[in-house]
Amino acid sequence: MSDSNQSNRDDKLSFDLTTQPWIPVLRINGEQDKLSLRQVFEQSSELRRVVGDLPTQEFALVRLLLAVAHDALGGPADIDDWSDLWGDEQCFAPVGPYLDAHVGRFDLLDTRAPFFQTAGLRTAKDEVFSLNRIVADVPNGEPFFSARMPTVDRLAFAEAARWVVHAHAYDTSGIKTGVEGDKRAKGGKVYPLGVGWAGNLGGVFVERPTLRETLLLNLVAADTTGVRIDEQDAPAWRRDPCGPGGAERAPSGVRDLYTWQTRRLRLHFDEQGVYGVVLGYGDPLSSRNRHDREPMTAWRRSPAQEKKLRESLVYLPRDHDPERAAWRGIASLIADALPSGQSSEPPSSLRPTVLEWVARLVSDGQLEPGFLVRARVIGPKYGTQQSVIDEVVDDSVSMAVVLLHQQDRRYAEQAIAAVQDADRGVMAVGDLATNLARAAGAETDGPRAAARDRAYGLIEAPYRAWLRDLAKAEDPYEQRMAWQRQVHEIAVELGGRLMTAAGAGAWQGRVIATKKGTEWLNSALADKWFHSALDRELGRPDPSAPPTDTDEQQDSETTVKALA
To answer: Which among 109, 215, 303, 336 has the fewest CB atoms less than 10 Å away?
Structure first.
């Protein structure tokens, strides 16, 4: 189809995102639905959450909704503004007139300023590419979460709109076809410029049972410490339409970042839907030291980058590890920005500003200490030079907001220490598996890893329940001791299963080398060392019982280190 014929046909078509259903949602009663932008805000009290085709799509759509809310409500400027919104069931009423005022920028198929697209975007050869380039569950090369391989031939307008939002947030890096007017193109190609903005983040946001509460709790006030929002901050639809190529500029605030145009794209469509796309690089944005702009990720200090760039301080987004459940990384979510003792040295990590904001709400008395929230973590794991998405992390941790309290850190400290208790229990189980394998003359790495995985799996649900109920305790230290006893019990039970499965070879044992010489290691000795380690790290379940012999504990430490 020629470009002129496409244009003529485009003039007759429209898909208004403010009135057409395109955002999948889950209602409080468990029913799924699809709503327009306007309906999502009108019915937010009746909705549980947005439901994306992928978790990353959900994160991108939530950020889009937050950009709309921030701009339509003009803030909130401070905590008093936020409190007024929280207490008003009709707080999103201004969104309707706001969308009316900007409706022209929310038409997916508009010929002059199509939503999140560049009108007339084309390559030198007028190529139209497969929709695989924007549908993230069908990456180039191999299947991911979808059975739509090997290609996506066509999308309905509603789904296409969702993938357009997702492309700006999470599109992969790699060499892309150059578009006409992009000065960065060389030989018809633009070389890698990085992933979409949200792809750099270990995404974090706060969830509640209704979408209304979720949106409000993530609506960070402009005067929040640790985040800068300029007066001229504006989302993409209140800026001039993007032309081909990219613009080097700094973000102005959350509305800008939540809708950052990291790509230039144009959908090709007919009356039946979208059948192709042109996709190129857009506005570049380095993730370095954006911690005062981007609130929905934790940050880590990078001494390596400080040395390389010769800068005194460099913070980078802390991404999510697919191998590590969210509860095990809770310290990055609830730990104070400054270490104990208020050291003058800049902190090695920063928790997400959105959680700093919630901490302020509880410290200022806007939320009760026992108020429960769920910290949701979402993020991709890219592979092969960021040219494909290998995995998507989607996890959550339910907690009382008292864990975020800025003045009372007792609960947070015990929650973090409880994870360390779990780690110690898992370490002891892993060491037992190692010693049993060594006693039997078998390879040790596999049994150790398998035992640790089983241990974390058994501890995860109890920890989540313990954390959720921590705020109910008057003394968090007593709760921590109860948790240590629970970890001890779980570890002992799993250790018993490992002993039963160890077999005759481990029971008979063999001579092994240690730092002190040689030792006859069998399952009985391995079990004694195991219980000694648990008592030492987690305390004895029965404090009246006699302590394990100190020499045996030291021998246990020496042997474990030798075998690890």
So the answer is: 303
